[in-house]
Specification:
There is one protein chain. The protein is α/β, with parallel strands linked by helices and 420 residues long. 34% of the residues lie in helices and 25% in strands. The chain contains 13 helices and 27 strands. Strands 5-2-1-9-23-22 form a 6-stranded mixed sheet. A 5-stranded parallel sheet has the order 11-18-12-13-14. Strand 13, helix 9 and strand 14 form a beta-alpha-beta unit. The longest helix is centred in the middle third of the chain and has 21 residues, at 175-195. It is elongated and about 75 Å long. Bound molecules: flavin-adenine dinucleotide (FAD). Flavin-adenine dinucleotide binds at residues 9-14, 43-46, 52-53, 55, 87-88, 113-115, 133-134, 175-176, 275, 277, 309-311, 324-327, 329.
């Protein structure tokens, strides 16, 4: 009888589980009859894999929306699995049933890899009056909003009115906030400046970056933090450190220390929280809501249920929780695929051990900072490493080639400012 394997979520963790499982089962497929090969189903609410690390480039016109997504049908083509485009509503662990918007599905082995969502930390008005950057749709909304604001401002006769309109902020001093602010600066002060010359003066545009921490990129070495700060300041980004946001109203950000910041468009990149899908019985979670797993990424006492990626917390065996990063999710996906194949073939499971490949943050055209192979990198070399590393993280060669071509063209051409 077919074993039913169901994978929830087709992000970094889910897709890598799928690919690793299919590849590990290749020899099994040859040795068993068709009826013994497992039935593998991947469920996701969109029919694409989204490469989140490049979302800020879509929001700022460096890359088109098609370049940061890959079709799941394309990824799964000829591998024998099923894809279901549906939203997962709940999981019943006792009866081994997943409830989705397209009906119920039973499973023998389950992988929960549903990722995370924007966390507004209960800041008054944040959800209503800021724009997040988490999905492809978010990136397109941001891009269209930036373009609309500049179009509108270019028609205003009053410099004061233009100034009010052209006020932008990014909340969040981690990698996503910093990368977004750097790209926005390039878009506003270079691309838009070129097209709206004579109608909008650069000095009328303000771009703020706010962080509640005392420094940007607190997880990086001090030399890299300082380099990032200097690069952003050179790009005319106004940095607010120790800026604890209290409330947001249309056009205004209020800080706890009484400062009020004018901001017509605010990009919110201050944090994420695990996706909250109902799982019965409720598994143990850490203080931020990530599900606690054992060294095989299983729920305790449930070796047929794996939980991985942003939604999982490994602190029970890694000491402290791993960061919510694509490279963690990818490595967890790969080991889970191999482990499921091992279960089916009666072999021993491998424990999950995380090996950091380093981290890099882009700072707009020609700039990046990061640590790779134990070496600190800044400037154009870091930028080149960053680009090369990301290219090879895509699953398909057509996407890699398209992005490489576009990045090369972008070196000599302005960004795309047509609305999506
Ligand atoms: C803007 C941005 C930039 C980032 N940059 C970097 C970076 O440079 N480097 C890095 O290492 N990490 C980066 N990250 C973090 C990285 O994206 C995550 O750590 C990684 O995506 C986690 O993988 P995952 O598979 O757990 O979740 P995801 O990749 O988020 O995948 C979860 C999947 O589940 C689907 N899903 C969610 N809920 C449901 C539901 N109810 N029903 C059906 N499907 C559902 C989602 O559509 C998604 O496809 C970035 C994140 C963001 C938002």
């Amino acid at each position: 009888m077919h074993k039913k394997i169901v994978i929830l979520g087709s992000g970094f963790a889910g897709v890598n589980t799928y690919l690793s499982l299919v590849s590990s089962l290749k020899s099994y497929k040859k040795s068993k009859s068709e009826s013994e090969y497992p039935e593998i189903t991947l469920i996701n609410k969109t029919n694409h894999f989204l490469f989140t690390p490049l979302l800020h480039e879509v929001a700022t016109g460096s890359l088109s929306e098609h370049q940061v997504v890959e079709s799941l049908h394309g990824i799964m083509y000829k591998t024998g699995g099923n894809f279901l485009e549906a939203e997962v509503q709940s999981v019943d662990l006792e009866n081994k049933i997943v409830k989705t918007t397209k009906g119920d599905m039973s499973y023998d082995i389950l992988v929960v890899a549903l990722g995370s969502q924007t966390n507004f930390f209960g800041i008054e008005g944040a959800e209503e009056h800021t724009l997040p950057l988490k999905t492809l749709q978010d990136a397109l909304v941001l891009k269209n909003t930036f373009i609309s604001i500049f179009e509108q401002a270019s028609g205003l006769a009053s410099a004061e009115e233009r100034k009010q309109l052209l006020s932008f902020s990014v909340i969040g001093g981690g990698p996503t906030g910093v990368e977004s602010a750097a790209e926005m600066a390039d878009l506003f002060f270079e691309t838009f400046n070129r097209y709206y010359k004579g109608k909008i003066n650069c000095d009328e545009v303000t771009l703020n970056l706010l962080t509640r921490d005392k420094e940007l990129l607190p997880m990086f070495e001090s030399g890299l933090r300082e380099s990032a700060l200097k690069t952003l300041k050179d790009k005319k980004v106004k940095i607010y450190l120790n800026a604890v946001v209290k409330k947001i109203e249309p056009g205004k950000i209020y800080l706890e220390d009484g400062i009020e910041i004018q901001s017509r468009v605010t990009l919110y990149a201050a944090g994420v929280t695990p996706v909250s899908v109902e799982i019965i019985p409720t598994p143990d979670k850490d203080r931020v809501g990530r599900i606690l797993v054992n060294k095989y990424l299983n729920l305790p006492n449930m070796d047929n249920v794996f939980v991985l990626g942003d939604i999982a917390c490994t602190e029970r065996f890694t000491g402290k929780s791993l960061p919510m990063l694509a490279q963690v999710a990818v490595q967890q996906g790969k080991v889970t695929g191999r482990n499921i194949a091992a279960m089916l073939t009666g072999k021993n499971l491998s424990t999950f051990v995380y090996k950091s490949k380093g981290s890099l943050v882009s700072l707009g055209q020609w700039h990046a900072v990061g640590k790779v192979a134990g070496i600190l990198w800044t400037g154009p070399v870091a930028w080149f490493i960053w680009r090369t590393a990301y290219l090879f993280n895509f699953n398909s060669w057509p996407n890699r080639i398209r992005i490489a071509v576009d990045w090369t063209l972008n070196l000599f051409n302005p960004r795309d400012i047509t609305k999506a």
